[in-house]
Amino acid sequence: MVQDNTAATGGVLVARRVPEAVAERARRDFGAIVADHDMDAGEALAIVAEKGLAALVSGGKVRLTAEHAAHLPPSLRIVANTSVGHDHMDSAAVKAAGVIVTNTPDVLTDCTADLAFMLLLNACRRGHEYEATMRKGWRQGFGMPDFLGLQASGKTLGIVGMGRIGQAMARRAQGFGMKILYNNRRRLPAEQEMGAEYVPDLAAMLPRCDILSLHLPGGEAGTLMTAGNFALLPRGAVFVNTARGALVDEDALIDALKSGHLFAAGLDVFRREPDFDLRFAELPNVFLTPHVASATVETRDAMGFRALDNVAAVLAGKAPLDPV
């Protein structure tokens, strides 16, 4: 079911469920068709074609392929993703077909870094095990050598991908007195490094990391964390991933966690979502969240609004704010 209030603005389809504030603006400003479910590419493009719409506000289920791009409705001018990532679609093929693709790169930086640091702390301090103990009623005392976690403050944090979110993670780590190393395609200007040390060779950085946190887009590095790279981390290291599940060889990660080579992990993203590898759920030394790094009222509203800002610019004949 969708609500069709299409006005003479070129026409907009919001092809995913969005917060009510975003839906209200889409209807008010564009007379948009707003879906009450997350559409796939076929359903969304059928409505765009039928209604002659100019803009598609897209979600992760709208997996536009090269085949879709070869047969896009001629009315379509922009696909506005409500996310930073756009690896769920063939952006290059869509752009080659003459359609603008946008994302929302700035609005979820702090929210994602907040959750990444939450994962870091819970992995270090055995958050899953502590919370599970309380849910079971506690009823058992612990002595000095029992149930020990790791102190996060003062540790060496390695950040892979020192973009907006990586830099926000570094700022949070500074508050914990951490030494910060980072690996990036290129060194940042000194004023953006915040005292962090640039290590151009990932293999050289990994043995120095007490904690490693990934902040790379998924399409740039392939499977970055292989068995070999996990082995380069010192025994007892902690691994955090809020970037992309595709960056990680999950079999290798599970082996490292089971063997004790890794003390713990904090994971928000997985190779298969939502049907993630349930072996992770069986491990006590993993703190898990269901890909919710951007899941706050403030950020989800901002993501939707930014996608609509891109739509407004294109429909007004202006350049998009966030072209991919």
From TrEMBL:
EC number per UniProt: 1.1.1.-
Claim: Oxidoreductase is one of the keywords in the record: yes
Keywords: Oxidoreductase
Any one GO MF annotation of this record: oxidoreductase activity
EC class name: oxidoreductase
InterPro entries (UniProt xref): D-isomer_2-hydroxyacid_DH, D-isomer_2_OHA_DH_cat_dom, D-isomer_DH_CS, D-isomer_DH_NAD-bd, NAD(P)-bd_dom_sf
Superkingdom classification of source: Bacteria
Domain D-isomer specific 2-hydroxyacid dehydrogenase catalytic, first and last residues per copy: 13-324
Domain called D-isomer specific 2-hydroxyacid dehydrogenase NAD-binding: residue spans: 117-293
Coiled coil: none
Listed PANTHER family: 2-HYDROXYACID DEHYDROGENASE-RELATED, GLYOXYLATE_HYDROXYPYRUVATE REDUCTASE B
Family designation: Belongs to the D-isomer specific 2-hydroxyacid dehydrogenase family.
Protein name: 2-hydroxyacid dehydrogenase
Source organism of the structure: Muricoccus vinaceus
Species classification: Bacteria, Pseudomonadati, Pseudomonadota, Alphaproteobacteria, Acetobacterales
